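Input.
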Amino acid sequence: MAKPLTLPPVSDTHMTELRQLYDTTTHATLRLRYQMVLRASQGRAGAEIAAMVFRSRDTVERVLKRFLHGGLPAIPRRTVPGRVPTVTPEWKAELLRVIDLDPHTVGIRCAHWTTGLLATSLAAKTKIPVTAATVRLYLRAADDVCKRPPLDAQTQRRGPARLRGKRLRVAVILAGAGTPPPPPVTALVAADFLAEVPPAGAELGSLLPHADVDLQEEVPCACHPTLTRVWCRKGRRGQHLVEAPGANDKGYGCGLVDWCDGWCEGRLAPGRTADGFWAQGRVAVARSRARGQIAIVMVDNLRTQPPAGSRLVRQRLAELPAHLRIVYTPAYAPDANRIAWLWRWSRRDVTHKHQRATVAALLEDISMHFQALAPHAALVLRPIGRPLADQVSEDQARTYAA
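Output.
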């Protein structure tokens, strides 16, 4: 049978200090440990103390042994040491240095930092690979926060969503072109909606087996950056300040994407004009004619793109009736032209919180962005919602972003 543990007499100085710690501590478990030592100093046995504090005898004796060997500093619970941290003080210093910089200044082709980009950049510089979760942990430890603007969940639509007219025609074309071989319109539209398919929609559906469906739209680039949530110091004083230019110069990027195979062509334009639109229309026609196809180009209702609003467009459509068809999406329906979904990626990489001082530098960024997208057809299809995008892995997407 184990011999009961007893404490030798405790000096008055230690007893006074122990009683003061017992009275002032706010930690319940630590207060209980001090109570065990106080009761033992009064001559009580370990089993008796265990019954008083509702703990096991082993726990009481373990606390008393620690007091015997280490004194009062040994009574509090010790933190179990973990493994040696992977990151170094130099890594943490570099993280806090680059978080306030424009990513372009350290060779990252993106307008603002994400934790994944920070992990990639720091691994290349410090040779210490970490995950995005590790970066997020150290940013929060440094009192950095990722702020999100308030979002309004209210929708502007006043009635139930329903496909009809131009929207139904667009849906028929995209669904038919995305299903090789393109099925007839009757197989794409429920019987209840067949009467609502415009005649032009049925005609275009019959052309799909011999047509390339291209999506075209412009993306604006302005000196005044669009804003999104970014990592910054906690509190109002730590917020990033975005410089507003005196003159908000603007430029435009024009994109053309094949809905089926992800072929992409991008260029710069001084404005949203008929000349810029037709420059890409000419590229679409030349590509389709070389493939023995008809070009069906889907565009929005910009004033300079319909034949009624541009003499140039009227002339070109009259010259190429057998090689070009233009499909106009409904007004105020940015989700109808799927290339607009690709601009979400472009804004994230180029225009969101950019720190370019001139529009020329910003346009150079969007031009390089178009060049980087062109060789990656599957990555182009991913944000616009094509099924082929499912074949793109997260590693490929991160490789492009880096």
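The longest strand covers residues 211-222.
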